[in-house]
Amino acid sequence: MGVAVFFLAELGGDELELGGAEGRHAAVVRRIGPGERVRLTDGRGAWAEGAVVAAGKSSVTVAVDERGTVAAADPRVVVVQAVPKGERAELAVEMLTEVGVDVIVPWNAERSQFRANPERVEKMLAKWRAWAFEASKQSRRTWFAEVAPIASTADVAERLARAALPVVLHEEATVPLASLQVPPSGDIVLVIGPEGGIAPTELKAFDVEPVRLGDTVLRTSTAGVAAAAALLANSRWS
């Protein structure tokens, strides 16, 4: 089992104190004490690791004996996820983060049944970002998954137009996802529709030939992770 990962924005120095919410989680929830090794990361590629030399009620102090940086992933995987209902949103965000997706873009699709007023959007983004943050630590990522602001269909169309590989999943498509050639760099933008499917007007706006994932139809909360894994298997994982 690997060492526990915690977030710390500043990693300079031979001894680092992990306080605040992260320190309380380490000391109280995880009950990490002196002698145990932990890894600290700024979530943007830098990390520092060492043994805990002191533990209080709401903080731990780490003596750093190893540190490094990890380059940002390339190609970058961006998943545009139509906003699911209820607990399926949490499932989607957690699994996309765990599989290695770099950016998650919540999309208020025509059939998402999400009423996008400012207060609801702010609460939704706070939840998605908290889920991605915790899942990034759980999966021991050095680059944490980013949750972008909520996107309109026009925003999604713009992302697809700029992508090195634009991918739109649709159950009625005839082209298989497995037939796509993954580029060596740039953005792979993968669009996952809502439970009711992507509307014809949205497909027209995207102006991308859709592809099918397989012979079965997946829920919106699981289609993204399956498709991302298939693309990663032909690029960063190979």
TrEMBL record:
Residues 18-64 form the Ribosomal RNA small subunit methyltransferase E PUA-like domain. It is found in: Cytoplasm. One of its GO terms (molecular function) is rRNA (uridine-N3-)-methyltransferase activity. It is an enzyme of class 2 (transferase). Keywords: Cytoplasm, Methyltransferase, rRNA processing, S-adenosyl-L-methionine, Transferase. Its main location: cytoplasm. Residues 75-231 form the Ribosomal RNA small subunit methyltransferase E methyltransferase domain. Belongs to the RNA methyltransferase RsmE family. GO terms for biological process: rRNA base methylation. Transmembrane segments: none annotated. InterPro entries: Alpha/beta_knot_MTases (IPR029028), PUA-like_sf (IPR015947), RsmE (IPR006700), RsmE_MTase_dom (IPR046886), RsmE_PUA-like (IPR046887), tRNA_m1G_MTases_N (IPR029026). Its EC number is 2.1.1.193. The lineage of its organism: Bacteria, Bacillati, Actinomycetota, Actinomycetes, Propionibacteriales. SUPFAM superfamilies: alpha/beta knot (SSF75217), PUA domain-like (SSF88697). It catalyses: uridine(1498) in 16S rRNA + S-adenosyl-L-methionine = N(3)-methyluridine(1498) in 16S rRNA + S-adenosyl-L-homocysteine + H(+). Specifically methylates the N3 position of the uracil ring of uridine 1498 (m3U1498) in 16S rRNA. Acts on the fully assembled 30S ribosomal subunit. GO terms for cellular component: cytoplasm. It comes from Kribbella kalugense. The keyword Transferase applies. This is Ribosomal RNA small subunit methyltransferase E.
